[in-house]
Amino acid sequence: MEKRQFKGLALTLLAVSQLILALDYTIIFVGLPSIATELGFSANSLQWVVSAFSLVYGGLLLIGGRLSDLLGRRRMFMIATALFGFGSLLGGLVNSDIMLIVARGIQGLGGALLSPATLSLIMSNFEEGKERNNAMSVWAAMGGVGLSLGLLLGGFLTNYFGWEAIFLVNVPITILVLLLAPVALQESKVKQTTRHYDLAGTITVTVGMILVVYYLIQSPLEGWTNYATIIPGMIGLCLLLLFVFIEKRTKEPLIPSSLIRIRSLISATICAALFSASFGTLYYFLTLYTQEVLHYSAIQSGVSFLPLTLSALVGSKFINRMINLIGIAGTMGTGMVLGAIGFIIVTQLTVHGSILAMIIGTIIIGLGQAFVFTTMFIAASLGIEMKQQGVASAIINTGQQIGSAVGLAVIMAIVSATLNTSGSLEHMGNDLLTEAVQMALIIEAIIALIGLLVAFTLKQKKSNALVTNKTAHK
């Protein structure tokens, strides 16, 4: 009983960590107007409140995963939580635009170290099979809840306590997690057999990823062929190619070649990218629609996502049953199909408001989100040695981050080219903005259906998953 209680506490801490990371992705959106007014951000510089986090987070995930394996998952979990809490505290206390961007960068650093540590701690603290799948369901549900809850909580905090509360709300949570982590979590790390460390690979992949992510973030604003974006992007691509060259020749590669050959990890990573490009970009477009077209307040806009939040919670309860019934590939594919159906239903929104279509569509999307988000991480853990769980976690998280950046950029480019518009969607009229959002939803549905095809490259793992789960029941 005592062991079960400790595992319950461990899962609570890991789920809360996932919740605050997901919250941080959307909670900032509704506070941006107030931040711009009080700290004097220009229209062009305000986006860096969001981009600073994404840039550091996406660029440092791989090194975060490797450090987690080598230095200890619990140790890195605590260091990362402390960094995230410090960045949050700094963000709530600053009085200048530059310092807020720095605070967001520190939060991103904490996130890059925290995300792979959290996921690999689930792998090391919970046995493969039913126990781990249950833990993954709870952990993933918190991620889905955090994305939609962030909009509601951000609106509430900004409205009643000021935008600073968006950051400060994380501080007591991180302190509590730090106090309980040494008691609840078991340490897990790789025994080093050599003192060699892949420094060249670490530098090239980290700088390369940061430059590529920078290109993806800035290009929709500056232009895809603008020298200010394409030169860093090309340098980043060259560094990533150099990284591949280095990895083939080093004794202790940052990403072991054995990982690249694991089909389930590669398929899961591609699914994660497609998930973020479709499900992940939905929040941006629907927030624009509810606030710019329907003129909802920040709180009303957040409340409109509650059906999605609740359906994602309900969906998470059926993950194990779905996996036992139709396998990991079938569950993930079902989620992608549900997402595509939901996106198409939501396209019925109009300039005058079609909240019923939005409610029905987002309920279906929420179920799909729960199925995909959980199973893609379960799939990524199949066949991975414990000593490589940190790096494997970082790989799928990197796919998720890149998918979000590429997905939004591609959707925006197609919408702009089709509607023959330039500039941000915020400056469009209601009719044109509604049409742009409808088109974005159609593209998201197509991306989700591509995800369905990729999900079925995992089909060979179905029997393994079922055997594992049945063994766990005995």
Automatic annotation (TrEMBL):
Sequence intervals crossing the membrane:
46-64, 76-94, 106-126, 138-157, 163-185, 197-217, 223-245, 265-287, 293-313, 325-349, 355-382, 402-419, 439-458
Query: How does the UniProt record describe the way this protein sits in the membrane?
Result: Multi-pass membrane protein
State the PROSITE patterns in the record.
Answer: MFS, SUGAR_TRANSPORT_1
Q: Which UniProt keywords apply?
A: Cell membrane, Membrane, Transmembrane, Transmembrane helix, Transport
In which compartments does the protein localize? Cell membrane
Positions of the Major facilitator superfamily (MFS) profile domain? 10-463
- The protein in question is named MFS transporter
Q: Which organism is it from?
A: Ureibacillus galli
